[in-house]
Design brief:
With about 325 residues, the protein is of the alpha+beta class. The chain folds into three domains: about 5-100 and about 320-330, Rossmann fold (3-Layer(aba) Sandwich), CATH 3.40.50.20; about 130-190, Dna Ligase, domain 1 (2-Layer Sandwich); about 195-315, ATP-grasp fold, B domain (D-amino Acid Aminotransferase, Chain A, domain 1, 2-Layer Sandwich). Helices cover about 40% and strands about 20% of the residues. The protein has helices at about 15-20, 25-45, 55-65, 85-95, 105-110, 115-125, 170-185, 230-235, 240, 255-270, 305-310, 315-330, and strands at about 5-10, 45-50, 70-75, 130-135, 150, 165, 190, 195-205, 205-210, 210-215, 245, 275-280, 290-295. The strands form three sheets. Strands 8, 9, 10, 11, 12 and 13 form a six-stranded antiparallel β-sheet that branches. Strands 4-7-5-6 form a four-stranded antiparallel β-sheet, with helices on one face. It has a three-stranded parallel β-sheet with strand order 2-1-3, sandwiched between helices.
């Protein structure tokens, strides 16, 4: 079948509540991915149709069931404004028996829950930063070594992580935890901040992309070297301009091999498929810590995975083409 006869649906959310939220920049970033993927698919010769969750679940179900697209590019990082909706939509696509670009519903749910994901990684012998958890907005009795960084346990895209999220002061820590819990109403992670180099490993299907590194040399004085919300989504901020990706990373071959090995082990432990990015810190004595495992990461042209694809010689179209090819060949839904 020629590409022009193959219909690919782009599934996305357009809830008004998202655009009115404090995290609207992150959701605008998803729109950049939607537009870029659509343009790329058309350039590659596919017929493309958008399906918005804004039309309601019944309408979405009917559209997908009746049209039976050859594949769905799952870019709904939320569903009807709910941040845990991404996994639910992956489950729906599986139930309909439609190949899609997403990792499984189970792995999406697991990776979003940082407490559960870290527990699984540690069970597999993979280092994560020492941590404690606050379940009610108060500090637990035992804390990991300072300095500390706080983050919501069930968000992604650096939501809830800011330029001042690192502290060595107990009073500031107590305030940060209380404020995060009040805003997100979920367990709050308190991790030891690993001071060291930050790297990313990207994977598409069975192909490993060149290792990239985040350079913080341009960060404002007094700011910690972290990719907080400002660094990821506020393009005019000093934090965004001061933290730039370089790919391939200027690191010894042996370190890159170790990063790739640990990254693939982390993806296997969490059953992540398709395309993904693993974030690392390399701390004292070259210990490699997994900060986060990201299935279905940002696909905007300025995102980390796109930069890795450029370094690999794929270009953006090559990245999109490989993700779609994996979905059509390997994403075999359990129910047909």
């Amino acid at each position: 079948m020629r590409r022009g006869q193959v219909e690919v649906v782009i599934l996305y959310d357009e809830s008004r509540a998202l655009m009115d939220s404090d995290e609207k920049e992150a959701h605008l970033g998803v729109w950049e991915s939607i537009r870029a993927v659509e343009i790329s698919l058309r350039r590659l010769g596919y017929r493309v149709r958008r399906v918005s969750l804004g039309s309601g679940i019944n309408a979405v179900f009917k559209q997908l069931q009746n049209s039976r697209p050859k594949a769905v590019f799952h870019l709904a990082e939320t569903a009807f404004g709910e941040t845990n909706g991404e996994s639910r939509m992956a489950a729906l696509l599986d139930l309909l028996g439609i190949p899609h670009t997403s990792s499984s519903a189970e792995s999406l749910s697991l990776c979003r829950d940082k407490l559960a994901a870290n527990a699984v990684l540690r069970e597999h012998g993979i280092l994560t930063p020492p941590m404690a958890v606050s379940v009610d907005g108060r500090l637990p009795k035992t804390l990991p070594p300072k300095p500390w960084i706080t983050k919501p346990s069930q968000e992604d895209g650096s939501i809830g992580i800011f330029a001042d999220s690192v502290t060595a002061a107990p009073r500031k820590l107590r305030s940060d935890v209380k404020n995060l819990y009040r805003k997100f109403r979920q367990p709050i992670l308190i991790e030891s901040f690993i001071a060291g180099r930050e790297f990313n490993v990207g994977v598409v299907g069975r192909e490993v992309l060149p290792v990239s590194e985040i350079y913080f040399s341009g960060m404002p004085r007094g700011r910690p070297n972290i990719l907080g919300y400002e660094s990821k989504w506020k393009y005019d901020s000093p934090e965004f301009k001061g933290s730039q990706t370089r790919c391939p990373a200027a690191a010894p071959a042996g370190l890159k091999e170790r990063l790739n090995r640990v990254g693939l082990s982390a993806l296997a432990a969490l059953n992540v498929e398709g395309y993904a990015r693993v974030d690392f810190r390399v701390g004292a004595r070259n210990r490699i810590y997994v900060l986060e495992v990201n299935p279905n990461p940002d696909l905007s042209p300025v995102g980390g995975l796109s930069k890795m694809a450029a370094a690999a010689g794929w270009g953006y179209d090559g990245l999109v083409s490989r993700i779609l090819a994996w979905a059509r060949k390997e994403r075999r839904p359990p129910i047909r």
